[in-house]
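Honest question from a wet-lab person: if I give you the sequences of every part of a complex, can you actually get the arrangement of the whole thing, not just the pieces? Trying it with mine:
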Amino acid sequence: MVSVDAQAETEMPTVTVDGTEIEVPDGATVLQACELAGKEIPRFCYHERLSIAGNCRMCLVEVKPGPPKPQASCALPATQGQEIRTDSEMVKKAREGVMEFLLINHPLDCPICDQGGECDLQDQSVAYGRGGSRYHENKRAVTEKYMGPLIKTIMTRCIHCTRCVRFSEEVAGVDEIGALYRGEDMQITTYLEHAAKHELSANVIDLCPVGALTSRPYAYEARPWELKKTLGIDVSDAMGSNIRIDARGREVLRVLPRNNDDVNEEWLSDKARWQVDGLARRRLDRVWIRRDGKLQPASWDEAFGMIAAAARGASVAAVAGDLLDCETMFAARRLMTALGSDLLESRQTGMSYPVGNLAGVNFNTTFAGIETADAVLVVGSHLRWEAPLLNVRLRKAAKRGAKIFIVGPYWDTTYAAEFLGDDASILHDLPDHVAAAMQSAARPAIVVGAGGLVAGAHGPALALAHAWNVVRDVDGVRWNGFNVLHMAAARMGALMLGFARPRGIADLAQAAPAVLLSLGADEVDYTRFTGALKVYVGHHGDKGAAAADIILPGSAYTEKAGTYVSTEGRVQFADKAAFAPGDAREDWTILRALADALGVSVGFDSFEQLRSAMIAEIPGLGVDGLVDFGPLPAAESAERAGGTIVYPVKDFYLTNPIARASATMQRCSAELLHGENLAEAAE
Amino acid sequence: MAERAPHPDTPELRARWGSFAWTNVNAEKVREIIGRYPEGRQRSAVMPLLDLAQRQVGQETSTQGWLPLPVMEYVAAQLDMPIIRVLEVATFYMMYNIAPVGRFHVQVCGTTPCMLRGSDDIMDACYARGMKKGHTTADGLWTLSEVECMGNCASAPMVQINDANYEDLTPARLDAVLDALARGEQPKEGTQDPARHTVEPVGALSNLNAMADGNHDYRGEWATAPA
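Yes, you can. This is the full assembly:
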């Protein structure tokens, strides 16, 4: 009997929650046990993805055996035979007491608080509070703390849950928020009130259970119940972060992360969150035609007529931009095919890595998988700027003991990493300890970033992947340790749709097309296409529009439904959150109308037809989830990496046309990266 | 308490303390202190190091010592820890002065036992000498603070002045101590009651009398346990 009991204790403890017996996983807390039993436990400081603090006391429950008093369930391990009550008089009284203490020093300013309507304290005081105050003394007041251009603070509302402190220390890896003083005088602040300077800083706004940390750009904009919430996919990097787009009318007011453990967990980079105010500025909302060197307003018919005249019997080419959905690219491809052209490219800056087998340019380990890697070689990627949420995953791996080596110029990692040098040629002559660490690792991973691709590191990295045998079975599960990290949200989709030429965009330049269709391509060197009629289909007046001869106003990612493929080959669908401004149309309708003007047929008349035609051609795009690209291709041994690695991102906050148009992103760039003091000017 | 805040970060502060470094003697102590903790756990040394830094600043300024921000940054850099974590420690504990103090830091205990034994009079005696809570006198000699329990309740009321406790105070006894300090003397620490050696009972025993001459089992004399 004893041995059976002992076994039960080490495996699945059985506990009784409000009279219902359930088995809980070993190591679960009483709070988790209650949740498994379907009981709601109020809490402020406890958060699934942060360490346990146990300082708000809201999660009190009655537990037997144990002291005859309520216990904080978040910090109490569930053990065999516990009797837990969440519905007793003691628990009710305890919750009311905690709530009363919390509200003693919390201001009654809900009517002017931006958290109102989505505030944990508000909701829980309604559900678990006494409904009245017995406190007549003076309340505590705390001075505002400056935390940068994204985080607005009203620290009198702070209830000291320390979620923000734990987030910046544990997840972001940038210790900058702390709790100073003690007791009643405790204050949350950054050192000397410097701005929070990392790419994930705004996540503390979501974490804050009260209105102490709210969003500065969104201050006093809207109440949550006024907003239409649309499920979308972020395009500010290639992670495919799951987002919720909150819009009122046609204006997108904010973007929040959605929970997806495989992709972004529940975090979001500051750029993905706040570039959306750029959607209302510098928009292309009518047709423009360049006449006498100047762009002048025109009509759709004029523009289509000019394009048809130029394209008749001549060569056409298309370049896909970084923010595109698959449907737009597929429509463009159909149009190009109908015109007899295969001049399609998406790698705007001239990269030409081989794409015969997309497994060779995919993030095969997956974001969730890389957490478990025990040795990682990063080749030419400034992860914090190119994929901030991937950096969070690597930090987790590093905390579990993974060795991380980086080839490329130094950047401030948030974990222990060894920089091997700036020159990509080191891949052919790795230091012994690096090779030994990678060879002896159970789950080795290689990450090739854009800087590495430019320096010709793709082939050599692939050769190393084969040499180190990074594709293997670990504990019966397939482990593929070879990864390419793209930066463009559209890249994997574009490659699947064949927007790649063997020699990259140089092939297009060499073909000297009469018409160059630029689908939101803002990073192309248009001086290579001087002879072409450059038609820009896009949404922002940025570099591409400046070089264009004809501008056809399109839709941004919030203004059209679409399919996106993230850099890990994950197909995800986004819905339309708002309408594009002015004359702007959804991109596929522009291409469909253009087909009519050019006298060709593309074979679809509606978005549904377009999507089913796309899925018929590329079935992978129709299935939500990871695409299986098959085994890794062999390395082309001739390719040699060389030259100093240069990271393509020069300014994290201004990497795409939407972000460049965003006042918030401009301010972040000026203040956080270039050290300008704009704090006063913005008030 | 609420007025406690780090001394402002000004160019003057940086100029004065930006080049802070351990004296040779202290550098040796720092090595010893950090050596007490396992490899990779050197952050644990933050409290003794802050104390040492405060004392060194005290030596350099002829005061009890305090912690200018650049000095905290120096300690943070030495222990390879984020400055905000150091500031958290320094602001949490009242024993770290985060703003300049005078030659003598008079910390009057005002917690219940001392209050019942007359700490208000002790505080008044300090006020009478021109001290003001949270401030340093113009001559730079005295800084007055009210603190919570110092654990000397058996000889209340008490004050702590720098590293020494003075107990069993009356306003007159406090004046004598402060006068002696002002003259540069080192008054006797501990109880200031001439009839007392340490915290033994003053005068005759008032309870547990049967224990005076030997062990005595009181248990049989207890009333029955309360219901």
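Two things worth pointing out. The interface with chain A takes residues 1-2, 4, 9, 69, 81-85, 87-88, 91-92 of chain B (CB under 8 Å). Chain B has a mean pLDDT of 92.
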